[in-house]
Structure prediction request, 210 residues.
Amino acid sequence: MKTIVEHLIEGFPNFSDQLRAEIILRAKLISINEGEELMSIGGNFRTIPLIVKGSIKVVREDDEGNEIFLYYLRPGETCAMSVNCTMSGRLSEVNATAEEDSIIIAVPSTEAGDWLSKFDEWRAFILNTYQNRFTELLHTIDGIAFKQLDIRILNYLSDKSALSGVKILHLSHQDIATDLNSSREVISRVLKILEKQGKLSLGRNKIELM
Prediction:
């Protein structure tokens, strides 16, 4: 198993030796199992996660329990929501769950704030995180407001395929419906249309992109 030093050098090459030394001193390396919750709506943040392995799915949920997928956190990234909440003392407004077995470096929120003025590369990393998340949220809004469901489904499947590096995705129609805030019946109907168009192949709880 890699050490925290190896994870930092590989996943965050722009960090200086001084910043890495601070992280090694203050942070902890944590393993998260697939399906395990990293953060939940209404929860307190005491750490900021640096993703070094795996992926984290971030979703928004309404009062009735309906969810909509926002974005994935990948290696080399952190969560803008956790940064914002720890800096402002606010509670979480999203749920985040490990999409696969993952490893994070948990940085104490008290240190993360101090590093903004102490390390230029940390400040640049946090600002870049906000920019990337803002761009992804705009894509999500565009998909909901302007794109037809078949395009949203294809984009969703393509993102999951790129994330996992495989063409065959093991997920149910209900999984897609939950993430896209639709119904299973509608998703199934559109998937069958996409299959007839030759864009994917359907199996039992699996979808192969063509």
Summary: The mean pLDDT is 84. Strands lie at 28-32, 37-39, 47-53, 56-61, 67-73, 95-98, 102-108, 168-169, 200-203, 206-209. Residues 150 and 190 are 6 Å apart (CA to CA). The longest strand covers residues 47-53.
